[in-house]
Structures are given as structure tokens and as C-alpha cells.
From TrEMBL, chain B:
<protein>
    <submittedName>
        <fullName>ABC transporter permease</fullName>
    </submittedName>
</protein>
<feature type="domain" description="ABC transmembrane type-1">
    <location>
        <begin position="14"/>
        <end position="208"/>
    </location>
</feature>
<keyword id="KW-0813">Transport</keyword>
<dbReference type="Pfam" id="PF00528">
    <property type="entry name" value="BPD_transp_1"/>
</dbReference>
<feature type="transmembrane region" description="Helical">
    <location>
        <begin position="20"/>
        <end position="41"/>
    </location>
</feature>
<keyword id="KW-1003">Cell membrane</keyword>
<feature type="transmembrane region" description="Helical">
    <location>
        <begin position="48"/>
        <end position="77"/>
    </location>
</feature>
<feature type="transmembrane region" description="Helical">
    <location>
        <begin position="189"/>
        <end position="212"/>
    </location>
</feature>
<comment type="similarity">
    <text>Belongs to the binding-protein-dependent transport system permease family.</text>
</comment>
<keyword id="KW-0472">Membrane</keyword>
<dbReference type="InterPro" id="IPR051322">
    <property type="entry name" value="AA_ABC_Transporter_Permease"/>
</dbReference>
<feature type="transmembrane region" description="Helical">
    <location>
        <begin position="147"/>
        <end position="169"/>
    </location>
</feature>
<keyword id="KW-0812">Transmembrane</keyword>
<feature type="transmembrane region" description="Helical">
    <location>
        <begin position="83"/>
        <end position="106"/>
    </location>
</feature>
<dbReference type="InterPro" id="IPR035906">
    <property type="entry name" value="MetI-like_sf"/>
</dbReference>
<dbReference type="InterPro" id="IPR000515">
    <property type="entry name" value="MetI-like"/>
</dbReference>
<keyword id="KW-1133">Transmembrane helix</keyword>
Length: 385, 218
């Protein structure tokens, strides 16, 4: 749906012709129809420029951008305008017209595309219902909460029935609960309307909650990109590291420390207990969790295996898990977990056979941190709300 | 001077001031909006970026704004004659008033339009809005409270300028104050015109503020 090849964009520092800032430095990107693709990066990584190049708010210096099979870099002004009707965009600070009501803001997008007044009225009502804002049609943006403003932004972006939605840090100005509700809405629209979503964000939660594909961007380039499920299995993947931070030592005397990743259906197999039972060894979980991502269920652990761990590693691999040696730098400086490990009790928790594989747990082991020895805390999970 | 003479004088002065200020306000609103929009559009990074046009316009505006109004009044006399056919009277005063106020209001328009967040303009562009839609439905519409507030300031400045219209026989309240109050030492006329001017300016400001409050949804 979106196809970007060799995109480059350079800014000239104001007043000084020799100082150039390369914002996007040769990016290739393909977003399939109906995909939710997240570009993750810190501010200044060039992700905003990348996004603005997709609808030509910024003209790329080099490279091609095509959306829905139409090469945008080749269009004249008028045809670009028409092409833009098929590309919705939402913004970090909502970018609503303060002088217009909620209904007026949505209607603006329809006025721009030349929809008649009568048709506008029904379509606006439809759109407001779609985003859950019916009843607030006559409110002004200043009377709305952040989440409601973004809903107006989304309704407006969808007014012209685009196939593609670009999201420029759409949840960065929102609190966690509101972020959640907006992400749910985006995912819902993606499913119901078959909307292709390309978003940029610096928030891991966004990728976790709604992205099926993702890229990590740094200094204008993609460090890694692809399906989230595949990236998790890549050794040294930054996305995997950020989605599942493993704050634990990378070596334990007399044992072998490995990072294990499981994805899809494998995430719900009681794999660790299986290894333990079949090979009759103790497996210690130093850190890790199993989580439900938009890309599917996935689990990632840092384990301490007895001896050289060869048999266990072999077994884990045979069951579809990726096993790698932890990166040496992964015990990030100043990690609070690091200091609390005393010699002889190197465990942050371990697992008990047969436990449901969700989240982190601890049972019957010399426990670190807040667990008091001999009396592990056990509770039944709450129903998700 | 009797009360009826005084009120007669005041009524005439008020009518002349209202006429001069009213007509030049309308002309200034149109001219200033056009010039202000042009300044914003042609500025670097604007929708019609044209560096040369932009700096020429900016220069012309600055020159016009540098001239003391009394000098402008005299300097444009040939132009006034060409436009209204005479160089004296209220109608003749409208010409320099408008010429003096347009650059003033244009700068205010420029500042008000720049207050519209670039984000909002980008959003409209991303939606596929034309440039004229962006100017009409986004820039001017969003800046309305600022434009009205700016026009209020301009009207009040015009009331001040119009006091000098007496030089070309323009009349009005200000001229009344100068001729009777200052030159003839008729203090009561002075006081009366000053009170009338204060009331006039108050009314304009209140009306402007009310309108701004109505338009503003921030």
C-alpha cells in the first residue's frame, strides 16, 4: 500500500549553506495493505520527516514514494491534492480548527473534497459515531479532553474514506489510559475498515499494542525493520530488547546464561517446565515475561542453565525457540536489579511446572527483591476489564 | 458659547469624524487584509514563497509606517487630487488616512495570521485543501479574533490620525479641539471634544472586545 524507496531528505541549516542536516538517509519501507506499521525512534531520528514525506508535506530530495500504486513524487500540484484525499493524517497536537465545532472540523475535511452540504451532514454524524463522539458535535475543541480531540482528528482524517492513515505521534500528548483507548480505536478501524496505518512514535506501548510490523529508526536510517514477530527472534534486535527489557546479569558463575524468545503458539507451551522435566535440570528465570502483543503472543526470558546448557539449548531450539547469548552491554549501567544479586542466590524468580504462561511469577525458590524466603506471594489473576 | 452652539459644533465634528474614520476603516480593512495576507504568503516558507516580492512589500510597508502622519497627509496631496478631485474636506482626508492605516493594519494582520499554528495549516494541506481554501477557511478564519482585535486598534489609531485632518480642512472632533480649544482658548469646547473622543474610543473598544469574545473559542 505504501512503498518507499531510497528516501533522502536533507535540511540546510538556516543562513549557513554549508551546514546540512540529514533527516532521512536512504530509507526503504513497504507497508502492506491492512498492516499497522510502526516506526519507533527517539526525537530527532528523522521519523517525523519520513512520515511527512509520505504525503509530500515535505518534498524528498531523493527516492520515490508511492501510495496505493500512485507515485506521489511525480504528481503535479492538483493531482497531488487529489491523491492526498486518499491519505488521512492525525497529529500529535491534534491540529484542529479552534474556530469550528467538532462537527465543523469534520465537515472541513469534506468541504475540501467537495462533498455537498446535505451529504456532509449525514457523513459527519456517521463519522462522529464511528469514533464514539456522537453527542459532542456542537462542542468546540477547547471544551474537549485530549482523547476527545484526537477522536475528532481521527474522524476528520477518515472523512474522505482514505485507504491509508498516517499517524504522527498521535498518542504522545495523551495520558496512558487515553492512549490505550485511542490505540484500541485505531486497531478497531484497522480491522473494520481495512485501513492501512503507518505511524511514528517514541512509545514502546504503541508498537506493543497495535503494530504488526515495525522499524527502529536512528540517525535517519532504519536499524531494523520487518514483522514484529520476526524481529523478536532476531539476535540483538533493539525492538525485542525494548519490548522485553531483560534487566539481569549476563553471567552467573557455574551456569550458562541465555536469552530465549518464543513467539506465536509456542509462547503458550509450558516450555520451561518441559525442559526442566525432560532433562531433569533446574532452569532459573533471571528476567522475562510472556505478553500479548498486537503481533501475537510472545515470550522472552533470560535463563540460567546448569553447566554449559548445551542439551537445554538444543531442546529449546527444537521446540521453536530462538536462543542467543545475552549481549554484553545488556546489563545496562545502573540497572537497579544488578546490585541486589548476592552471590549464591542469583535468582530474580524461577518458574513452577504447570503454571499458566502469562506474565512473570515466582514460586518456591530463593527469591530476590521483595519476596520473602519461604513464603512466595501467590494470587489469582484478575479478569481483564 | 451657548450650550446649543456647542452641541451643534460637537454634532458636526462627531459626524465628520465618524464619516472619515468609518470610510477609511472599511478601505483599510480590505487593503490591510490583502497586504497582510500577501506578506504572510510570500514570506520564506509561505504558501506562495517569493523572497523578492516579500522583501519589496516589507520595505514599502516600513517606509509608509516611518512617515509621520502629518507629512504623509501633505505628501499624498497630488494623489488625493487625482482620486477625489479635491484636496480639502473630509473626503480628501480619507485618502491619506487610508494610506496611513493600511500598512499599520497589514502588519497586525500579518502577526495575527502567524499565530495560526503551522500544524493546522499542515493538516489542511495534508487533507488536500487548495491554497485559497487554506487562506480563507483556515488562516483568516482561525485568526478572526486577532483580526478583529487588530481592526479595533486600527480604528482607534484612525481616530487619532483624523485629528490632523484639519490641516486639509477635513474637520472632525480632533480639528475642533485644535481650532476652538487650543487656538482660541475655548476650554469648554476643548473639554467637550475630549470627552466626546473618549466616549467614541470607549465605544469602539467595547464593541471590538465584545466581538472578539464572541469569535474566540480558545
Amino acid at each position: 500500500m505504501i512503498e518507499i524507496k531510497g528516501l533522502r531528505k536533507t535540511y540546510r541549516a538556516k543562513g549557513r549553506r554549508d551546514r546540512e542536516v540529514v533527516a532521512v538517509d536512504g530509507v526503504d519501507l513497504t507497508v502492506g495493505e491492512g498492516d499497522v506499521f510502526g516506526v519507533l525512534g527517539r526525537s530527532g531520528a528523522g521519523k517525523s520527516t519520513l512520515l511527512r514525506c509520505v504525503n509530500m508535506l515535505e518534498r524528498p530530495d531523493e527516492g520515490s514514494v508511492s501510495v496505493g500504486g500512485v507515485e506521489l513524487t511525480a504528481l503535479n500540484r492538483r493531482r497531488l491534492r487529489l491523491a492526498r484525499h486518499g491519505i488521512g493524517m492525525i497529529h500529535q497536537h491534534f491540529a484542529l480548527l479552534s474556530s469550528r465545532t467538532v462537527a465543523g472540523n469534520v465537515a472541513f475535511a469534506l468541504e475540501v473534497t467537495g462533498v455537498s452540504r446535505a451529504e456532509r451532514r449525514t457523513r459527519v454524524a456517521e463519522l462522529l459515531e464511528l469514533v464514539g463522539l456522537d453527542g459532542r458535535a456542537d462542542a468546540y475543541p477547547s471544551q474537549l479532553s485530549g482523547g476527545q480531540k484526537q477522536r475528532v482528528g481521527i474522524a476528520r482524517a477518515l472523512a474522505a474514506r482514505p485507504k491509508v492513515l498516517l499517524s504522527d505521534e498521535a498518542t504522545s500528548a495523551l495520558d496512558p489510559e487515553t492512549t490505550d483507548s485511542i490505540l484500541r480505536l485505531l486497531l478497531d478501524l484497522n480491522r473494520r475498515l481495512g485501513l492501512t496505518v503507518l505511524l511514528i512514535t517514541h512509545e514502546m506501548t504503541v508498537v506493543k499494542r497495535i503494530c504488526r510490523s515495525a522499524a527502529v529508526m536512528r540517525d535517519g536510517r532504519f536499524v531494523e525493520s520487518g514483522a514484529v514477530a520476526d524481529l523478536l527472534h532476531q539476535p540483538g534486535s533493539e525492538l525485542a530488547r525494548d519490548l522485553f527489557p531483560l534487566d539481569a546479569p549476563v553471567s552467573v558463575p557455574g551456569q550458562t546464561v541465555v536469552d530465549v524468545t518464543v513467539g506465536g503458539e509456542d509462547a503458550d507451551v509450558p516450555l520451561l517446565s518441559e525442559v526442566s522435566r525432560r532433562l531433569d535440570i533446574d532452569v532459573q528465570v533471571l528476567a522475562g515475561s510472556v505478553e500479548t502483543l498486537a503481533a501475537g503472543r510472545a515470550g522472552r526470558w533470560r535463563l540460567a542453565l546448569p553447566g554449559d546448557g548445551a542439551a537445554a539449548i538444543h531442546y529449546l531450539r527444537s521446540r521453536g525457540a530462538s536462543v542467543s547469548t545475552p549481549p554484553v552491554d545488556s546489563l545496562s549501567a545502573g540497572s537497579p536489579a544488578a546490585g541486589s544479586f548476592s552471590a549464591g542466590s542469583p535468582a530474580a524468580g524461577s518458574f513452577s511446572a504447570g503454571s499458566p504462561a502469562a506474565g512473570s511469577f515466582s514460586a518456591g525458590s530463593p527469591a530476590a527483591g521483595s519476596f520473602s524466603a519461604g513464603s512466595p506471594a501467590v494470587s489469582t489473576p484478575e479478569e481483564p476489564s | 458659547m451657548t450650550w446649543s452652539e456647542l452641541s451643534e459644533l460637537l454634532a458636526v465634528g462627531l459626524r465628520e469624524t465618524a464619516w472619515m474614520v468609518g470610510v477609511s476603516t472599511v478601505l483599510t480593512a480590505v487593503g490591510g487584509l490583502l497586504l497582510g495576507v500577501l506578506l504572510v504568503l510570500t514570506a520564506p516558507g509561505g504558501l506562495l514563497a517569493a523572497p523578492v516580492v516579500s522583501s519589496v512589500l516589507g520595505f514599502v510597508v516600513n517606509v509608509a509606517r516611518s512617515l509621520p502622519f502629518i507629512i504623509l497627509l501633505v505628501a499624498v496631496i497630488p494623489f488625493t487630487r487625482a482620486v477625489v478631485g479635491t484636496t480639502i474636506g473630509t473626503d480628501a482626508a480619507i485618502v491619506p488616512l487610508t494610506i496611513g492605516a493600511i500598512p499599520f493594519f497589514a502588519r497586525i494582520v500579518e502577526a495575527a495570521l502567524r499565530e495560526v499554528p503551522p500544524d493546522v495549516v499542515a493538516a489542511a494541506t495534508a487533507m488536500g485543501a487548495t491554497r485559497s481554501q487554506i487562506v480563507g477557511k483556515v488562516l483568516l478564519r482561525e485568526a478572526r479574533p486577532g483580526l478583529v482585535a487588530g481592526l479595533t486598534i486600527t480604528v482607534i489609531a484612525l481616530v487619532g490620525y483624523s485629528a490632523m485632518a484639519g490641516v486639509v480642512g477635513g474637520g472632525g472632533l480632533g480639528d475642533l479641539a485644535i481650532r476652538y480649544g487650543y487656538q482660541r482658548f475655548e476650554t469648554e469646547v476643548m473639554v467637550a471634544t475630549v470627552v466626546a473622543l473618549i466616549a467614541f474610543v470607549q465605544l469602539v473598544q467595547m464593541a471590538g472586545d465584545l466581538l472578539v469574545r464572541r469569535l474566540s473559542h480558545k
